[in-house]
Design a protein that fits this description.
With about 160 residues, this protein is of the alpha+beta class. It has four helices and six strands. The protein is globular, with a radius of gyration of 16 Å.
């Protein structure tokens, strides 16, 4: 059955998937805690704005990695079906690579559609994040070296 979900319904669906999350009703978002435990991911959330549901994953990148990522971003986008990828640059903050997927929910969505979209989006984003992390382009808490190698960033060519 098609349902036009609100933040409460989405949180119920996440509970059914045994996902660990935090509901922020004032921001109309759900923070996906279980994804923040993945190496290379700083934040992940689902937000509802009007009739659009957006799933986003944020990964901080090393400043020195920006030139390589600028040249690779269109290749990454062409290699992903659901996820759209862009770089977010802000003053006084680390640059981030953002993986985003938006879907109109005005006509409704089923639990199975939600589950499939979420899992496929996560799979695509995690594949790219793993590749970027293996190339030492991402900032993470376990980082011990500032040495970067761009030699292995050829998955999307």
């Amino acid at each position: 059955m098609l349902i036009i979900p609100d933040i409460t319904i989405i949180s119920t669906w996440l509970k059914n998937l045994n996902a660990i999350f935090h509901l922020s009703t004032e921001r109309n978002t759900i923070e996906l805690i279980y994804l923040q435990k993945v190496n290379g991911i700083a934040n992940a959330d689902i937000s509802l704005i009007d009739d659009i549901m957006t799933i986003s994953i944020y990964s901080p990148v090393k400043q020195i990695a920006l030139p390589a990522l600028f040249t690779e971003i269109s290749q990454i986008n062409s290699a992903t079906f659901l996820a759209k990828v862009y770089l977010e640059l802000r003053d006084n903050e680390n640059a981030r690579i953002v993986f985003s997927y938006s879907i109109s929910i005005s006509e409704g969505i089923t639990f199975n559609q939600f589950s499939l979209c979420l899992s496929r989006f996560e799979e695509e984003a995690l594949q790219v994040i793993t590749e970027l992390d293996s190339c030492d382009l991402l900032l993470n808490s376990l980082e011990t070296s500032a040495h970067l190698t761009f030699n292995n960033l050829n998955t999307y060519h």
